[in-house]
Amino acid sequence: MGKRAMRKTVITIGLILVTLIALCVIVAYFLFGANLRQVRVSDYVITTRVGDHYEFTLDTDRMIWEQHLVNPPVSELDKYPEIQAIRSLGLYVEKTDQGYSFETVTTSDDPAMAKKLRRAGIVLKGTQWTWTENEIIGKNATQPTDGFTELSLPDYVRVSALPDGSYTATLDQQALLDACSFELPLDPNQHSGYQAIMSLSIGCSQADGSYRLQAQSNMSTIMEALAENRIRITNTAWTWTPAEMAQHAGQGSSAATPAAQQPETQQASPAPQQSASNEAPTASPAPRQSSGEAITSLYGFDQTAVRVAIRNAKEAYYGSKLESGTVYMNYFAVGTGSTPHRNVFRVVYEISTTGGTEYLIADVYDLDSETGYSASDVALRTAATRAEARATDDIKDYTLYTLNDGSMIFPENANRSPFDADGFVMEKSISEPLTYDELWDIPQTESLTLLQLLAFARNEMFARAGHQFNTSGSYYRHFSSYSWYDPSGTITAGQLAEKWPITATNTTTIKFLEKLIKEG
């Protein structure tokens, strides 16, 4: 072979290699980079005005929700390293002459955190930035005051003293609703202002001898919902001394009012017979007096109010000692004429407190079709071990249903698939508001729990707008089997709401139930 021919061969081989390398880079991009969602950290900063300065927190929960990721309970975090990575994110903020400088930090010392985020299809953008004072004022600004009802949150906080001499705080949601003066009649499941108020709670923690109180909400669009209803909540974070907590103790109605202080007309019905290990209840508010015919099936029954009442009782009981709580077990027991109660609705929590881990058993007796459940309708007791908490000897004469992940397979749904012919759980979700009662009644199967089906119902709205799910995940496998699914890229909650406004409310409704089932 001549030199010219050899040179030509070498050039040809070189061009082929360069082409192959370029093709590999392109393929790698589409396989590993094209599906990565660029998440700008500054979009998830919560700004709160406290006196003459600002406080900043990173809303990692909203980041998880808006990126359509699973949000597991604390007890299962080890199964989801990418969620651990997101939850470890925080902010380092420094006041400067120009305003505030921000840097994204992490409490994790894992050097592979970025890889774990990529596993979730996420790459963080804009991890360092600066905001001027005017920019912060603009981001923290609300609607003009004209026509708005301003409500100072401390006016609606009810403080209760705990047996150890410390204090806890709860939010009087009913007083807030009354102050909002919403026009009646309203459907709570469809009224965004009602949902916004009901999503509010108060976080109460002790630090440096004082109590730090701050508004909390599980509703990502709460500010928009309040503004839509001409409501502004002010003073959402503040500090009270123990003397100030004592001064506010006992004012207004409180979910933590002990049973002994209930009106004499509300007589306690007997609790189910306790097992030997639980003979001494640690707290026992008076059980609810049935004002209607006790139900024998949860089909068609809206569990929301009952579960919220149980959650409020839990938070009032533990107060500032509560670090986290997840639903460990959930039962519905139907009795007979020989049992003390027609039915028992039970939630068992695994609770982490400043003193360690224990289990809380919360019972509501004789459910009926009436509404208005409150923490005073809940009977509480604690257990030290899982085995003790799982024990159901006290309701052994009842027909017992275990509601794993909120699930209960109803005879009324026999042979019904949770998905319609187009693969939708809730086909109307882009055009009509969803109600709690219809979500509780979604047909469940042995392989799909209610919690999983609620996630499908939430994500199918994004799928219909063309959201690109991870190609190896269950959502992509499900939706891609239908001709209507045409993924075009990342769809945010805001973009979805622009296309179909009702989806903002429906997404919030579903997320609220998901959180209620997992965490109470």
Core attributes:
19 strands; globular; alpha+beta; three-stranded antiparallel β-sheet; 520 residues
What does it look like?
This protein has helices spanning about 5-35, 60-65, 80-85, 115-120, 135-140, 175-180, 190-200, 220-230, 240-250, 305-320, 385-390, 435-440, 450-465, 475-480, 495-500, 500-520; strands at about 35-40, 45-50, 55-60, 90-95, 100-105, 120-125, 130, 150, 155-160, 165-170, 200-205, 210-215, 230-235, 235-240, 320-335, 345-355, 355-365, 380-385, 400. The protein is built from 16 helices and 19 strands. The strands form seven sheets. It has a five-stranded antiparallel sheet with strand order 18-17-16-15-19. The protein has a three-stranded antiparallel sheet with strand order 4-5-7.
